[in-house]
Amino acid sequence: MGKFRYTQDSGILTEKQRQFYEDNGYIVIKNNVSNVLLDNIRQRFLDICNGKVDTGFMTIMKDPSLIKHKHVKGEYLIHMVQNFLFDEVLSQCATDTAVTDVIASIIGSNVTAVQSMLFNKPPNSDPGASLHPLHQDLHYFPFRPAERMAASWTAMERVDESNGCLYVVPGSHKGDLHQHSYPNVRNSIRHNEQRS
Hints:
GO terms for molecular function: phytanoyl-CoA dioxygenase activity. It is an enzyme of class 1 (oxidoreductase). This protein is an alpha+beta fold. The chain has a single domain, classed as Sandwich (Jelly Rolls). It has helices at about 15-25, 35-50, 90-95, 95-105, 190, and strands at about 60, 80, 115-120. The protein is globular, with a radius of gyration of 18 Å. The N and C termini lie far apart (about 45 Å). The model is unreliable at about 185-195 (pLDDT under 50).
């Protein structure tokens, strides 16, 4: 095996970026997706939330903490659009070469999307409603080899711990797959948790 186990020599990532990924299991590439594409995706999301678009095979999930408020509608109610690969506009985020080239530089050229989700954090939502505990994706996706799987996450606005950023444990890609359970969160539908 060569110097790199978790990345491919595609010419997209620098050696420094590849080494960072090898060590940490993630990489941040800022401003990789164009503002034009992000604006198109934002507008499409608003159109979906406002019922202007046939959602077809997509699953539109409302924020469970806001459903009881009859006056909350549109983008202020929708928490997630799942299976957005079925939408001609939203799917562009998954097919954009700026994204797929980076993914291919990690897993190789046989890039296949198996899940697609757009998360929204509505204002006035109960913080527990959108809780997504730390987990290992490999627990949910039985594909192997593990080093040929990657997740891609694109923030559509500035994010940090106060408004819902992605959190990773550096180096955890080299460890064991752990047994998963979930805290007693309010949004049990979202996490398929079983309560005692």
